Amino acid sequence: MADLATPDTAPVDPANWTCPAPLRDQPVVVMGHGGGGALSAELIEQVFAPAYGNPTLAALTDSAVLGLGGARLAFSTDSYVVRPLFFPGGCLGDLAVNGTVNDLAMSGARPTHLSAAFILEEGVELAVVERVARAMGDAARAAGVTIATGDTKVVESGHGDGVYVTTAGVGLVPEGVDIRPQRARPGDAVLVSGPIGLHGVAVLSVREGLEFGVEITSDTAPLADLVAAMLAVTPDLHVLRDPTRGGLGASLNEIARASGTGVRLRERAVPVPDEVANACGFLGLDPLYVANEGRLVAFVPAEHAEAVLAAMRAHPRGTGAAHIGECVADHPGMVVVATALGGTRVLDLPLGEQLPRIC
């Protein structure tokens, strides 16, 4: 084995190497813990789940489904720390509404009410806060939900990043609907509602001042109406997930592991816009791990797949829907990709996040 040195240098000391990826035995929080990948999963499994442990939380779905007085209520909460606050196609305000609305919709719920909590940094311009608040109000009206309660806190200058928002939401789950990752079954068709990767690349382009020849616009949008159209075909949708942090790759891995099944993806079938593919190629990113904020992935029984796909394509939020793979009995808990070159590769759960703070 060659010596790790050149004639003009001393041998390289591995102890001085640095790794751009967060190390898994870190004793402190690193950015990767918020990325929706393996580090996020470990944080939940090793810190939060033992502290809060209960059967409802253990399901680890986008929203919890609670039985209250004969009704089934979906309940979800999420925080938004996107940087910059404003980006092509959206901003922190509509992102906060759409993200929570979509988490509720992934349980099949019809969202009804949200809360909004603001953490403001001392010195932020009130015009910025008002712009974010107005965007939230417009997005809530577009999604058919009411922002019914909220809270405001202020932290000292230098102890925040302008504006952070936390939203929680509730919605009603129709009778006969049981959507959760544990229900994925071999034979299920895997459908995606449209082109992927737009949100993450849109945010990155503004944050880093990058130009790719065309403006890439975030896909942030509410998905409850699209889900309702799918449920009108059949209430027996097995799994729905909005592939936000960690992208499509993370969502598929979470579903495969929760259900104990495998997933086989067809690379050629995944709708990746040319501008996203070009940007990811330039930056060395995998579009399958780039965040989305207006897309869903669905696991649908094979006998209903064509009808559900047609209903998705007939809806404005699903015109680019595609059948991208299947749930299989082979390689349980794993996702594999049939590549365009005829090979097969494993699509693992990402360690952290390629693009931090995109939601």
Automatic annotation (TrEMBL):
It comes from the Bacteria. Residues 62-173 form the PurM-like N-terminal domain. Gene3D superfamilies: PurM-like C-terminal domain, PurM-like, N-terminal domain. Residues 185-331 form the PurM-like C-terminal domain. SUPFAM superfamilies: PurM C-terminal domain-like, PurM N-terminal domain-like. Transmembrane segments: none annotated. It holds the Pfam family AIRS. One of its GO terms (biological process) is protein maturation. Belongs to the HypE family. This is Hydrogenase expression/formation protein HypE.
